Amino acid sequence: FMPQLICRGAQVETPGISPLLAPLLIARGADTYEKAQAFLHPSERDLNDPFLMPDMRAACDMVRAAIARRTPIAVYGDYDCDGVCASVIMLEALRSLGADARSYIPSRKDEGYGLNEAAVRRLAEHCGLLITVDCGVTAVQEIALAKSLGMQVILTDHHTLPAELPQADAALHPQLGDYPCRDLCGAGVAYKLACALTGKRILPSLELAGLATIADMVPLLGENRALAALGLRAMRQTARPGLRALMQTAGMQENADIGGMQAAFLLAPRINACGRMDTADIALNLLSTGNAARAAALAAEADALNTRRKAVEQRIVEEADAQVREMDLCRLRAIVVQGEGWESGVVGLVAGRLAERYGYPTVALSRDGEACVGSARSASGVDLYQALCDCGDIFTRFGGHKQAAGLSIRAENADTLRERLSQAVEKQLNGRVPMPESRYDAEITLPEITLDMIEELKSLEPFGMGNPASVYLLRNADVLSARAVGAMGAHLK
User: What is the Cα–Cα distance from 23 to 8, expressed in whole angstroms?
Assistant: First the structure.
């Protein structure tokens, strides 16, 4: 599986922009001097008015009325970095206004993603207002149940809109109406609600909105780029004990510049590991606590869970890859692997590793008797959510977006899924053959690589989805030395 090389840069110039940056900026949509300046210097002015989002005023009125009545409010989140950050953002905003607010994050292993009936019934016993963050857009029955039990419901989410929307009292979603940034993450939507409620554009939780924006792999363009850049700047001098402890545990220097790659590969995995390997409440408490000693203990626990996660992930990847080698990938257009007792919190990472390795959209399933829960990751430009919709009748539950999804299915339907998903992917590819890709921005020669060039490229930070770190193609180079470095020789120098 030799990767195909694809140039994502545009070999043209923009007046007033250096020849080094111009092709990269044009490839990222900044094709004029004005757009280039806005891209290179994200600022507070790039944050949109939250009231441009439909139902925002109704949501604020509902929250204020609940606070005035002293009605307890439940914030129902998700167990990944985006969902945890969204929960903390919402809780802090509500409590700053005097609300009686509490958090609920379901167990990944026992409850799965999103709202579930048992949790809704328990929350309805004590709370009169339910606010979902980073989930809920497909929870038609669960939200109907909540309303039948006397709760008002504010839905905030960013996942792909289904054909039928839940009948929430207010629905905040960047793809409803004409909101300018249609790719906000869950924490980004929660942050907009928090800003609307407090009347402020910049909140102490901005650093969490920035971290989640990078971690959830939404395009770092427009308002998302501003959230990420401003959030990282705030994180550098954060007073939040949990973030300071997390950065120390990850080996990051105090008060040093924090880039998108550090947020994505050092901080987010430790937060995610809590929900993957244990309970997301560990991460929620870590980011919420004001006690430095407790923060240090929780950060150490998150770090230990992340270490265990990496070992489990490597083992499952090896088992899954052995299954792939037995498949006829010349005939199939999608990979579906499954294993009895695979950690459900890790299968999404496994799917991502296989999708990157083979270039095929991949589903990894954790089997428990006759039931499977799993995660899917896209590749080769396939709209994964649409492909899964084409197989929707064989799932007991699924949801997600173009790049990633979660699902539940009966074990007996796993082989059927492999065939049906292959057909759905084949229809989208329209004759193209899926294969691994290596994308680069431009070709370069060794004499052109200088320290000044590297400094200039730093102006493109923060890097992430939609704004990947620059990659250059060097042809006809002789490798003089090569050796494995890093933990377990995972990197090549």
Answer: 9
Alpha helices in 77-125 (DSSP H): 81-96, 117-124
The encoded tokens of residue 275 equal 């929900």
Name beta bridge partners: 417.
none
Q: Which helix (H) or strand (E) holds 300?
A: helix 292-324
> What is the chain's length?
493
DSSP 137-205: TT-HHHHHHHHHTT-EEEEE--SPPPSS----SEEE-TTSTT-S-TT--HHHHHHHHHHHHHT-S--TT
Q: pTM to 2 decimals?
A: 0.89
DSSP summary character for residue 477: -
**At residue 254, does pLDDT exceed 90?**
no
Q: Which helix (H) or strand (E) holds 377?
A: strand 371-377
Q: Is the peptide bond before 72 cis (omega within 30 degrees of 0)?
A: no
Rg of the chain's alpha carbons, rounded to an integer? 23
Distance CA 279, CA 281 (A): 5
Residue 24 neighbours by CB distance under 10 Å? 22
The closest alpha carbon to 125, from 102, 149, 94, 154, belongs to: 149
Residues 6+ apart with CB under 8 A from 370: 410, 411, 412
Q: What is the pLDDT of residues 52-86, one digit of tens each?
A: 999 999 999 999 999 999 999 999 999 999 999 99
- d(C-alpha 420, C-alpha 366), whole Å: 19
Q: What CA–CA distance (Å, rounded) separates 68 from 62?
A: 10
Percent of the chain topping pLDDT 70:
99
- List pLDDT tens digits, range 224-246: 999 999 999 999 999 999 999 99
Res 364 pLDDT > 90? yes
CB 131 within 8 A of CB 73: yes
Q: Structure tokens of 156?
A: 């905030």
